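RECORD TYPE: inverse folding
INPUT: structure tokens
STRUCTURE:
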């Protein structure tokens, strides 16, 4: 197959807010890499942080950098040492590129690898027509999986990892934060047999999506007293399990208050800055268990995702609310930031 020499890509060209659409060289591949022609790529909160150039981005990102890490596409070239992937394969990609040889990688904890490089953060990403990645990061998809769903798998993995950290079967579950990952976590909790699911957010649009995806009760934290409402609905007992997806200090405080003694919490959301935690009353005296969640378990979470999607236990279709061509990335980012969307997909 004859490949072009250049391609369109959305690039963080310099420090400061904003991205630019540029014509850049098609990436070269090494002996263990594959070149993927991108079918679809979606927007993550991380991309918004980089676009806005907030303190996290200022400390992490080194322009110039092609943005994006959630994507799917077709393998169009393979390195000479690649045996697991072939030209023509339809794949999604794990965005965390790990070393494979440290103690964490060798003990089944590659998601904690201290040498991780993240696509679209530490190396060029997927908001482009082509991307080069290590072959071992490619995940083969069934040919009938729609691209707008296949591009969500990386992000869906965060939800699956969080929800599977706790045994949610027959338990009352609180999900704080109904962004796309929170909504996907609701779908997973419903699929694996939660007794009741309570969801909180500050936008009615996303609370409506949460109900579509399986939430029993939705609470707008701007207009309702979250703690009082949940305690009323649980006869003063509180919830058995809590999935924190928002990173909002107020939501975290509410979650700790309604998590019952002996309960469990899985924390994925990232607060904007260090926050106060009442360890005595929220954690120690309650005897709760706290799980910190990062990335996806490699590759256990991907197999769990495959099972949920291919069995039909989870349907992600309602979550994809907007699709834009790559050149309309500015409009797509505005929609994503508005809170009046589910998942936003870009198509090169």
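DESIGNED SEQUENCE:
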């Amino acid at each position: 197959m004859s490949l072009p020499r250049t391609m369109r890509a959305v690039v963080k060209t310099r420090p400061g807010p904003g991205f630019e659409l540029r014509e850049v060289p098609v990436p070269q591949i090494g002996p263990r890499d594959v070149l993927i022609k991108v079918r679809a790529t979606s927007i993550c909160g991380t991309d918004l942080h980089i676009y806005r150039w907030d303190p996290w981005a200022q400390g992490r990102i080194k322009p110039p950098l092609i943005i994006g890490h959630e994507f799917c596409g077709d393998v169009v070239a393979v390195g000479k040492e690649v045996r697991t992937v072939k030209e023509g394969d339809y794949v999604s990609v794990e965005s965390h590129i790990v070393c494979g040889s440290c103690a964490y990688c060798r003990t089944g904890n590659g998601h904690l690898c201290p040498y991780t490089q993240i696509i679209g953060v530490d190396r060029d990403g997927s908001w482009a027509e082509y991307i080069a990645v290590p072959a071992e990061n490619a995940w083969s998809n069934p040919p009938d999986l729609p691209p707008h769903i296949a591009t969500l798998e990386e992000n869906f993995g965060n939800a699956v990892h969080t929800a599977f950290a706790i045994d949610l079967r027959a338990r009352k579950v609180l999900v704080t934060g109904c962004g796309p990952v929170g909504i996907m976590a609701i779908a997973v909790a419903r699929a694996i047999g939660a007794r009741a699911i309570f969801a909180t957010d500050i936008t009615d649009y996303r609370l409506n999506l949460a109900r579509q995806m399986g939430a029993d009760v939705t609470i707008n934290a701007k207009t309702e007293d979250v703690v009082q409402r949940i305690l009323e609905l649980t006869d003063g007992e509180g919830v058995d399990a809590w999935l924190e997806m928002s990173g909002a200090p107020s939501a975290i405080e509410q979650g700790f208050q309604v998590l019952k003694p002996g309960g469990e919490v899985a924390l994925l959301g990232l607060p904007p800055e260090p926050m106060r935690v009442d360890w005595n009353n929220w954690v120690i005296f309650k005897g709760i268990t706290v799980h910190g969640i990062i990335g996806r378990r490699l590759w256990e979470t991907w197999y769990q995702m495959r099972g949920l999607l291919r069995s039909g236990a989870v349907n992600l279709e309602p979550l994809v609310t907007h699709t834009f061509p790559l050149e309309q990335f500015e409009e797509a980012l505005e929609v994503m930031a508005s809170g009046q969307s589910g998942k936003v997909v870009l198509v090169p």
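NOTES: The radius of gyration is 20 Å.
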